[in-house]
Amino acid sequence: MYKKGEISYEPLPLPDRVQKPDAEALQAVEAFRDYMRKRHSVRDYSGRPVPREIITACIEAAVTAPSGANHQPWHFVAIANPEMKATIRAAAEEEEREFYAGGAGDEWLAALEPIGTGVSKPHLTKAPWLIVVFAQRYGLTEDNQRYKNYYVPESVGIATGMLITAIHQAGLVCLEHTPNPMKFLPELCGRPAHEKAVMIIPVGWPAEDATVPAAAKRKKPMDEVMSVFD
Hints:
Layout: H1 22-36, H2 52-62, E1 74-79, H3 82-103, H4 106-112, H5 123-126, E2 129-136, E3 138-140, E4 146-148, H6 152-169, E5 173-174, H7 185-188, E6 195-204, H8 222-225
Antiparallel strand pairs: 1-2, 2-6, 3-4, 5-6
């Protein structure tokens, strides 16, 4: 984390060692891979509440992510308040109406057709929690002086991925919701003007009748997403 006046490098011995023998490492990562294959983006939520402590622990995992110059240019707002969730849903659905009425091109709408999305966003009020992810365009020192943040989209993207992984580790489901624009969110969430909302993540337990689009289970084969040079 950036602190004004701290400009010298101080090495520390590696604080934690979690390394394993090769065979044990392969077994562990294959088990993790198989568990991650059970992760699904879900729009259908149960009304079952989720304890705040679980959400906090998920965010605590997310903020261990690496970031450009260790500036940690993110903020996560966890919302269970029904009125706030209703306000977010109303604003998001207003944007979606414009999107589906012509704001998006035909190609984009055709790409979304197999996913089954539409104007109505009941998950934004049904899910017990919404986590709004904010990216900080720049930082502020304790005396309100600006400093530059580096690799902000990359850093926030890594932290968000770790948050989604932590949510799955807890046995919960979530959805990556990105209405655009989301200019109302900083004020609603009490965040400063230099923070930009980049994602709303509904989090909860899946409904008994939850479904996912069949198209979402089609993944590219490994030879299309991985190259190896031994």
